[in-house]
Write a structure and sequence with these properties.
The complex is a heterodimer of chains A (91) and B (153). By secondary structure, chain A is of the alpha+beta class. Chain A has helices spanning 17-22, 72-90, and strands spanning 32-37, 40-45, 48-49, 51-54, 60-63. In chain B, α6 (112-125) crosses α7 (135-141).
């Protein structure tokens, strides 16, 4: 999808809310990677890869941060909410 | 609902919902140790999972909140291990429609329908216990015969 957005005299851009929601760029400030290519400028979220290891049982365990940093019930609820938000944004 | 014995020693048949699978899959989660102890004791003849939870676990693990990303090949590996360790339970169309009518009747909204789908799979599997880290929300959509089977690991 091609959108036209405006840049102000200081170089600031506003990414439309529907696009921010689609890329989970909501509820906070984020770092973006700015890539200069022959086709133009590409912006993409800067991501940090999470380490993973296999438990002796075979279960895959990720280590995405400090112990007890994430509430699993809240994380699942937020993913369900993101899914609903994406459907609304695409509709 | 947080009653002994510890879930890791649970002798009966059980179903783990997505919150338990997710908590077991990342050391950063609250309740990780208890969840991992439970899921690593799972064997397909007595441990069940809603097929919907396999998709939901993939979606949640592969999401990128906080700008951290888990590799999708490792996420897939994690989900496939769940599918082998537990017996996945599916619903037919009548099962889905029953759940939708039930949540509408309970005036439940939005993502609560997924808790009800998972609970319906637990009923279909005939498990003794449904383990979740979100008992309040799951109880909200539970029905007689299932509500008393819900507990935390």
């Amino acid at each position: 999808m091609i959108r036209t957005i405006q840049m102000d005299s200081s170089g600031r851009l506003v990414i439309p809310q529907a696009v921010r929601e689609r890329y989970d760029l909501v509820d906070g400030a984020y770092s973006l990677e700015l890539i200069e290519s022959e086709e133009g400028i590409v912006l993409r979220p800067k991501l940090e890869e999470v380490a993973a290891e296999a438990h002796p049982s075979g279960w895959i365990v990720f280590r995405s941060g400090e112990a007890e940093a994430i509430d699993p019930a809240q994380a699942v609820a937020e993913e369900r909410e993101r899914r609903t938000r994406r459907v609304r944004a695409d509709g | 609902m947080d009653s002994p014995p510890p879930a890791a020693a649970y002798p009966g048949t059980f179903l783990c919902d997505t919150t338990v699978l997710f908590a077991a899959s990342d050391a950063a989660h609250r309740r990780h140790d208890r969840s991992l102890a439970l899921v690593t004791s799972a064997e397909p003849r007595r441990a069940f999972v809603a097929a919907h939870s396999l998709a939901e676990l993939y979606a949640t693990l592969s999401a990128t909140p906080g700008r951290k990303v888990r590799r999708v090949d490792q996420v897939l590996q994690a989900v496939e291990h769940v599918a082998r360790s537990f017996t996945p339970v599916t619903l037919d169309l009548d099962g889905y429609l029953w759940v939708l009518r039930h949540v509408a009747g309970a005036e439940a909204r939005s993502g609560q329908v997924y808790d009800a789908l998972i609970l319906k799979c637990a009923e279909r599997a005939g498990v003794d216990t449904v383990f979740t880290w979100n008992p309040v929300h799951v109880m909200r959509v539970a029905w007689p015969g299932m509500a008393e089977r819900i507990r935390t690991p």
